Amino acid sequence: MSALTFLALRRLADGRFHSGEEVARSLGRSRATLSEALKLAPQMGLELYSVRGRGYRLAQPIEFLDAGAISRELEGTRIQLQVVDEVDSTSTRLLERAAAGAPSGTCLAAEWQSAGRGRRGRTWISALGGSITFSLLWRFERGAGHLGGLSLAVGAVVASSLAACGAERVQVKWPNDVLVDFRKLAGVLVETSGEAAQGPSVAVIGIGINHRLGEAALDRIDQPVVDLAHCTREPPARSRLLARVLRDLDAALDRFAREGFAPFRDTWRSLHAFQDRNVRVSPPGEAPFEARVHDIAPDGALLVSLADGRRLTLSSAELSLRPR
Ligand code: BTN
Description:
Low-confidence stretches: none
Mean pLDDT: 94
Helix content: 25-40%
Distance between the termini: 42 Å
Number of helices: 10
Strand content: 25-35%
Bound molecules: biotin
Shape: globular
Strand order of the largest sheet: 3-4-5-9-8-7-6
Largest sheet: 7 strands, mixed
């Protein structure tokens, strides 16, 4: 997107009509240039009306993130937040910064990701102003092999934060999807590097939360999803929500660094959507099979049993689980 597109959208953010001539003049551009810049809006999941004699109006107001207010809420934490309008993927950028030595607590949030990544090579689809997308870099003294339960711990923290912000019936699906009524509310992508046994190691934790997805974004998503607008009485302001999740993550990651997954296990179990349920397990590149979910192990692996009574421990985050 062009910088002009974002400048213009900020002028239109209140969801009221604005004359094209006035917006163009205030930005020092011609009406034709403004019109070209706004043609990009639908690509970001926005519905924009253009009415002769009245101007432009967004179907939904956009509540842009307030980086200053969020950073004030984060005082006393290790998190250093940067908010950008657009990036391909906040996780891709933070992986680069991690390799270049960026400190623990570096956080990048984007209003719009042009190439958001999900687990198992999927695309993460969001909408400008309708999602929260950010990544957080965290460094650990222990080796990457000790970070097995990290993605589950993060999933449980995000689920608890969203519940504290008013989301109802929030659950988790192994390893770290956040669900409401078996529909995905938030996704977590944890990418680690460093030697397995010897520390140090680094994790880039990418989180996407569906805040108020419009029809355009919903049409492009090929799995059951839900947004906060549909599972809260009043969805929290985006900036407040991001500040809350980041504060909770700061405390949780500090604890995980000292104690591992153990202190998060009971919370995770209490939120477990598939506990004692029959599921279809699809390991990458292998035939799917049916199993019954029993529990999660102390290291975060999923414990299931097969029809013949055999017990299996599943630990690859690349496999997919579907309810039966
Ligand atoms: C999943 O459930 O598949 C994980 C989704 C993770 C999406 C977030 S959005 C912010 C960060 N940047 C990305 O490209 N992906 C993660």
